[in-house]
Amino acid sequence: MKQPSIVSIIGWHKVGKTTFLVALLRELRSQGLRVATIKHTHGEFEVDHEGTDTWRFAEAGSDCVVIAGRDRAAFLTRTEQELSLDALIQRLPCEVDLIVTEGFKAAPTDKIEVLATGDAPERATVAGRLIAVVADAPPAEVLASGVPCYATGDAVGVVQLLRDRGLLPPQACHPQGIAGS
After folding, report:
1. Which of 96, 123, 127, 142 could form a disulfide with 34 if both were Cys (CB 3.0 to 4.6 A apart)?
2. So where are the chain's domains?
3. Which residues does the chain have with pLDDT short of 50?
4. 5-43+94-164 has which CATH code?
5. What is the model's pTM?
6. Burial zone of 17 (CB within 10 Å; 0-12 exposed, 13-18 middle, 19+ buried)
7. Residue 156 region by backbone torsions, left for phi larger than 0, else alpha for psi between -120 and 50, else beta
8. How far apart are CA 52 and CA 84, in angstroms?
């Protein structure tokens, strides 16, 4: 199978990246596409909660804890250092049509920048290729740049852009969707 394309949703804190990404994911899924999402954070985080069995396993020293149920599984892995985007992708446990990241500004991936209304001219520094800007009122410099602009609610338009750029398969490989979604 061909390695899936990677698109990074970037922007400053609290500009609406997650809200846009959720809408984008819903649109991709409605078209039958399988998507992996990888979020980058600069701080420490916890996905498990004190007192659960899996939390107790990890606290006791397990380097990898897996919890599995009828329709999903979660892998919690202790790492010695922050993993690169490539290392995270190699660890994905399923085949997908597209990988979408939130963050990873420095990764050499295609980028979609989300701007808040009235955002200052200072924008995220982009490594890789800026393929679109999502903003309800893009600044004049963005409009003049020639980079396609989409309103924050236009996930359909962004999916079409991804398809037009060859970042998505020509048609969904999974027209029935995924069980449990």
Report:
1. 96
2. 5-43+94-164
3. 173-181
4. 3.40.50.300
5. 0.83
6. buried
7. alpha
8. 29
